[in-house]
TrEMBL record:
<feature type="binding site">
    <location>
        <position position="86"/>
    </location>
    <ligand>
        <name>Zn(2+) 2</name>
    </ligand>
</feature>
<feature type="binding site">
    <location>
        <position position="173"/>
    </location>
    <ligand>
        <name>Zn(2+) 1</name>
    </ligand>
</feature>
<comment type="function">
    <text>An RNase that has 5'-3' exonuclease activity. May be involved in RNA degradation.</text>
</comment>
<feature type="domain" description="Metallo-beta-lactamase">
    <location>
        <begin position="15"/>
        <end position="226"/>
    </location>
</feature>
<dbReference type="InterPro" id="IPR001279">
    <property type="entry name" value="Metallo-B-lactamas"/>
</dbReference>
<dbReference type="GO" id="GO:0006401">
    <property type="term" value="P:RNA catabolic process"/>
</dbReference>
<feature type="binding site">
    <location>
        <begin position="385"/>
        <end position="389"/>
    </location>
    <ligand>
        <name>substrate</name>
    </ligand>
</feature>
<dbReference type="InterPro" id="IPR036866">
    <property type="entry name" value="RibonucZ/Hydroxyglut_hydro"/>
</dbReference>
<dbReference type="GO" id="GO:0003723">
    <property type="term" value="F:RNA binding"/>
</dbReference>
<dbReference type="InterPro" id="IPR042173">
    <property type="entry name" value="RNase_J_2"/>
</dbReference>
<feature type="binding site">
    <location>
        <position position="411"/>
    </location>
    <ligand>
        <name>Zn(2+) 2</name>
    </ligand>
</feature>
<dbReference type="GO" id="GO:0005737">
    <property type="term" value="C:cytoplasm"/>
</dbReference>
<dbReference type="GO" id="GO:0008270">
    <property type="term" value="F:zinc ion binding"/>
</dbReference>
<protein>
    <recommendedName>
        <fullName>Ribonuclease J</fullName>
        <ecNumber>3.1.-.-</ecNumber>
    </recommendedName>
</protein>
<dbReference type="Pfam" id="PF22505">
    <property type="entry name" value="RNase_J_b_CASP"/>
</dbReference>
<keyword id="KW-0862">Zinc</keyword>
<keyword id="KW-0479">Metal-binding</keyword>
């Protein structure tokens, strides 16, 4: 059976991930993501109303025109998890394919939200829920399986396409976490089995984000302990404390909520995306928030909540807000500019349970936001966080578990691939033979 991979997006950047695997006449698409930095760089771009080709030209969504080079039928579109760089282009591209969108429950809910917000295209692909551990028949001879992985959002999976020539493992976005918060540890046992069974692993497509960092990525429980310690150190402070993190990182938000209660403060979630992700997780029963937890997304209700905080005393509350990257329109940035009823005073504390995404736009915006807060006397608690991506030893462990015949580095640019390429070469792989360093818009024929 012919096996061919199309590297459509996310092979020159972190963002707009999209890869297609053709096995004989059947094609499965993994991820359809957005490159958010290409959107944010333009002021006031509303992607909801934009046409796909304009977004492709902006570099915001994958240029899927290479799909016409693949001879076969798309059988499934499979987003691996709910981050926008993996699902953000579904509303712009999925309607071009006559195939269902297959995803884990939480991811599928977020995809629904994306489709509902779309104003240009009517996306009416079937939505199929599949849990990790489950499989789906693809064509006559292939099978799609979801393996549970741990990442900075719940319900992440690595999809595996089992073909008669061996398995294709799409390994994007995970860390090996044996002690996560809110969900099960990564299913390494299953990866080891997949490496050994049948024809073994034909190809492993891997996320190289942190390949240049030594050692292994700590568990989410490490970030949780760090956060607990930092917040307990603030227990006696009788002024304002504000926290921010990735809205989509429901495990982290739930730790913040819990520790707020521990230090005698009422947590409140503020900001549109904070309300969206946490609200979705709560409705699905994926997180156990206190019954009286306030979540406010709309400007007016947010301002009302802030007024209540100011009236009843800042020392009684922990606002958990958007804006960890200094995004100009996010809540923390607005607080820094004095645009909300919340007054930041000398000695007040701001917890960034996040790391600045190392990208010039983010770094600049975050610097500005932090300076605005410091000018009002805020104390900054930075980087109370662990990454959701594998480091060098995690990558080594995955190679050992899967023993893939071919490897395709992804989720980075050429510079970002380099440390991963060194690691793979040290394990006997060779660029141009079985280690395929590539860019967007290419096809790689693995079996002819
Ligand atoms: Zn991700």
């Amino acid at each position: 059976m012919e096996i061919e991979i199309a590297t459509i997006g996310g092979y020159e950047e972190v963002g707009r991930q999209m890869t297609a695997v053709r096995a004989g006449d059947d094609i499965v698409i993994f991820d359809m993501g957005l490159n958010l930095s290409q959107v944010l760089i333009h002021d006031n771009v509303e992607t909801e109303k934009m046409h796909s080709l304009d977004l492709i030209d902006m570099g915001a969504i994958p240029d899927d025109r290479v799909m016409s080079d693949l001879e076969g039928d798309v059988q499934a579109i499979v987003p691996t998890h709910g981050h926008l760089d993996h699902i953000g282009a579904i509303s712009k591209l999925a309607h071009r394919y006559d195939a269902p969108i297959v995803a884990s429950p939480f991811t599928l809910e977020l995809v629904k939200g994306q489709i509902e917000g779309e104003q240009k295209f009517g996306v009416d692909n079937d939505l199929v829920e599949m849990e990790s551990g489950e499989t789906m028949q693809i064509g006559e001879e292939c099978e799609l399986e979801f393996v549970h992985v741990t990442h900075s959002i719940i319900d992440a999976i690595n999809p595996v396409l089992h073909t008669p020539e061996g398995s294709v493992v799409y390994g994007l976005d995970k860390r090996i976490d044996h002690d996560p918060v809110l969900e099960d540890p990564i299913d390494m046992e299953r990866f080891r089995e997949i490496g050994r069974e049948g024809e073994g692993v034909l190809c492993y497509i891997e996320d190289c984000t942190n390949a240049g960092r030594k050692g292994r990525t700590p568990s989410e429980s490490v970030a949780r302990r760090h956060l607990k310690d930092a917040m307990q150190s603030m227990e006696d402070y009788d002024g304002g404390i504000v926290a921010t993190t990735f809205s989509s990182h429901v495990s982290r938000v739930s730790s913040l909520v819990e520790f707020a209660k521990d230090i005698g403060r009422e947590p409140i979630l503020l900001g549109r995306s904070m309300e969206q992700y946490s609200g979705t997780a709560e409705r699905m029963g994926r997180v156990n928030f206190p019954d009286d937890l306030g979540m406010f997304g709309h400007r007016k209700s947010v301002d009302r909540a802030f007024k209540r905080v100011m009236n009843e005393g800042k020392e009684n509350f922990l606002p958990i807000v958007t804006g960890h990257q200094g995004e100009p329109r996010a809540m923390l940035t607005r607080m820094g500019r004095g645009e909300t009823p919340y007054d930041i005073e000398n000695g007040d504390k701001v917890i960034f349970s996040a790391r600045v995404i190392p990208e010039p736009t983010n770094e600049g915006q975050r610097y500005q936001s932090e300076q605005l807060l410091r000018m009002q006397g805020a104390r900054i608690y930075d980087d109370i966080h662990v990454s959701g991506h594998l480091r060098e030893e995690g990558h080594y462990e995955m190679m050992q578990a899967l023993q893939p015949q071919h490897i395709i580095p992804a989720h980075q640019d050429m510079k970002g691939f380099a440390p991963y390429v060194s690691l793979a070469e040290s394990q006997g792989y060779k660029v141009g033979r079985d280690l395929h360093v590539t860019s967007n818009g290419n096809t790689i024929q693995l079996v002819e």
